Amino acid sequence: MIFSVMTAVVRQTGTAATGRANPARIFLVAALSAIFVSGDLLPANANRPAVELQGRGVQIYICEQVSGVMTWRLKGPEAELLDAAGSEVGDHFAGPSWRAKDGSIVVGEPLIASRSPIEGSIPWLVLRAKSHTGSGIFSSVEYIVRSHTDGGVAPSVGCDPTNVGTETRVGYSAVYVFFAN
Fold first, then answer.
1. β-strand 88-93 against 124-133: which pairing, if any?
2. What is the DSSP string of 121-141?
3. Which pLDDT value is given to residue 50?
4. Residues 106-133, buried b or exposed e (16+ Cβ, 10 A)?
5. Any idea of the CA torsion for 93, 112, 129, 41, to the nearest 10 degrees?
6. pTM of the model
7. Rounded CA separation 18/133 (Å)
8. How far apart are CA 42 and CA 74, in angstroms?
9. Of 24, 45, 132, 141, which has the fewest CB atoms closer than 10 Å, so is most exposed?
10. Segment-wise mean pLDDT, segments of 10 residues, the chain, 181 residues
11. Which of 146, 141, 127, 139 is nearest to 32 (CA)?
């Protein structure tokens, strides 16, 4: 039964214009399959995106000493969210949180990460909404998929005892697909 449902969802991930599958939706289907198998609830309509937005901005890292080792720790993102026309429709910030211009906010919690196919890029993620604020486009979001990432990885050098507390900002972009109930 699960196999036939997932097969049907994968078939729905193709686009009419190209006939090719959307990698973000396939990633979501695979991730939700893993979640279902692990005992989590699989939403019946998780294959329908509410909105797809481009995120452009920075990943902010702070230099810290953790267990005697100097490391760049993610403080959070700071990015604008753009629609298909390139208009700013919201922002993305620590939480991780996404806020639309209508005032609605969704805060996510990571479920699954997958290495980006682009070297030096932050992972692709599936996140579950853990809280909502306000009424609007993000108020009914249940899952968020981050895919098509470019950049954003913490530096491999520059964090030493003389730089504790120093922040660095690394440019990135990603596609965010929000799935509603």
1. unpaired
2. BPPEEEEEEEEEESSSTTTTE
3. 78
4. bbbeebbeeebeeeebbebbbbbbeebe
5. 180
6. 0.77
7. 37
8. 30
9. 45
10. 35 45 57 47 55 97 95 97 97 97 97 95 97 95 96 96 96 96 77
11. 127
